[in-house]
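Researcher: Sequence recovery benchmark, item below. Answer with residues only.
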């Protein structure tokens, strides 16, 4: 088996043209964020799989589509490859087997032709509108350039040159960009960067994020700690670290701490939260013992939703896969996120992999906060009883520890722990109610929780407490 990194068009050409000479097997490529698999027999490409296009139509010119796939990855020829001997895997037949040299020559020519028209087309998924009713022009009506190539019996170069000619003559125009097609440019935007909390009202800012449907990370940092608040459409869904009492912090913020707000696409922010809250499926394995190309190819080939975290000397690299597509690549260094497009990593580095899973922990933090508030009321009236009965109950929860009459989390709570905290809250509410009466309990809790009313509104805790009632 051969595998490795591809850094430029020369490297891609060497892999496809030189490596395949006289060989039989499968070449898998993850280049320009696309997955391409080529089946080779005695150096001739006979079958392929490509995640460009996704056609459901019949009568596809598979050879044309293959040439276009190679031409597309040539626009940004960086990625990974793996070659292994496997003659059993089935894929889409090319038609007539083609040599790798011939394929690369044609794809290179097509790439040059595509580059000349991309300024006008903007995206290969832009839909054409025919301005003339002649058959040769009307053929492009309602098609994008990928469809026009894949459905044509003419060579790819001829189709692309015809598009260029018709666009120059005004016979073709662009009238639609279909949502969700093509690669979108991922961006991050710092709304605030290291602003001292003494200059702002943290609760008012969080409330404005809620009203503006903010998605991203609110980072509160000081020399001794950092708090990350993860938001989706204005709702805080997770906090890290979980043993930090955010309710008390919001009530009396550390004026020496600083606040940064980074706006991140809502489909990506939960993947970033995985790095802090999720349990890794691969945990900090050195590059000396892992071939990174296999991970990229596997995640793409098997359409996985995952976060690939690469820890380098200069910082952490967050690489997000959604349905096998690489949708975001960020670096975090000195607490600052930046977009990066390179897939080259500085040796030695460490690899962690997080498959997508639920990362919400706000409900658990709300339940824990309410448990501690009820315990505080209980403590005033029955300190001896609370020590015996509550400790006897709390010992059943290995993720909790009792310190100075207050419960703390020892690890991030999952769905099972969330349910257990809800049950514990119900148990302690019933116990306190039996001891001091339901009316007095409600009265004292209302008084005790009054200072937190603005914080409760920001965190929208009513939706959690309704479940507890």
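Model:
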């Amino acid at each position: 088996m051969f595998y490795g990194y591809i850094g430029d068009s020369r490297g891609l050409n060497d892999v496809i043209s030189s490596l395949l000479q006289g060989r039989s097997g499968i070449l898998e490529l993850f280049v320009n964020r696309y997955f391409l698999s080529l089946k080779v027999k005695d150096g001739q490409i006979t079958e392929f799989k490509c995640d460009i296009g996704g056609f459901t139509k019949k009568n596809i010119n598979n050879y044309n589509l293959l040439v276009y796939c190679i031409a597309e990855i040539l626009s940004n020829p960086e990625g990974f490859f793996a070659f292994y001997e496997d003659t059993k895997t089935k894929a889409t037949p090319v038609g007539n087997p083609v040599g790798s040299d011939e394929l690369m020559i044609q794809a290179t020519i097509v790439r040059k032709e595509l580059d000349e028209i991309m300024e006008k087309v903007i995206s290969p998924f832009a839909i054409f509108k025919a301005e003339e009713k002649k058959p040769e022009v009307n053929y492009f009506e309602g098609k994008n350039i990928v469809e026009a190539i894949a459905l044509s019996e003419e060579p790819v170069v001829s189709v692309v040159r015809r598009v260029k000619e018709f666009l120059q003559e005004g016979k073709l125009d662009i009238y639609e960009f279909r949502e969700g097609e093509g690669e979108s440019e991922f961006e991050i935007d710092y709304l605030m960067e290291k602003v001292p909390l003494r200059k702002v009202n943290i609760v008012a800012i969080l409330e404005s994020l809620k009203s503006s449907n903010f998605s991203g990370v609110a980072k509160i940092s000081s020399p001794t700690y950092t708090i990350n608040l993860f938001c989706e459409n204005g709702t805080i869904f997770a906090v890290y670290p979980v043993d930090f009492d955010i309710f008390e912090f919001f009530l009396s913020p550390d004026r020496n701490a600083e606040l940064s707000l980074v706006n991140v696409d809502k489909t990506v922010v939960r993947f970033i939260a995985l790095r802090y809250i999720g349990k890794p499926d691969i945990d900090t394995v050195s590059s000396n013992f892992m071939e990174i190309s296999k991970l990229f190819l596997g995640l793409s080939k098997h359409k996985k939703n995952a976060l690939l975290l690469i820890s380098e000397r200069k910082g952490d690299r967050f690489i997000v896969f959604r349905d096998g597509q690489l949708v975001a690549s960020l670096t975090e260094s000195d607490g600052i996120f930046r977009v990066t497009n390179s897939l080259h990593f500085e040796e030695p580095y460490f690899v962690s992999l997080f498959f997508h899973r639920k990362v919400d922990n706000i409900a658990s933090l709300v339940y824990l906060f309410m448990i501690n508030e009820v315990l505080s009321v209980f403590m005033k009236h029955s300190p001896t009883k609370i020590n015996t009965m509550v400790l006897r109950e709390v010992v059943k929860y290995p993720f909790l520890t009792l310190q100075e009459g207050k419960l703390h989390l020892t690890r991030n709570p999952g769905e099972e722990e969330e349910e257990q905290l809800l049950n514990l809250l119900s148990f302690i509410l019933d116990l306190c109610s039996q001891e001091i009466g339901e009316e007095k309990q409600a009265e004292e809790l209302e008084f005790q929780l009054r200072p937190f009313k603005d914080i409760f509104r920001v965190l929208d805790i009513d939706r959690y407490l309704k479940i507890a009632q």
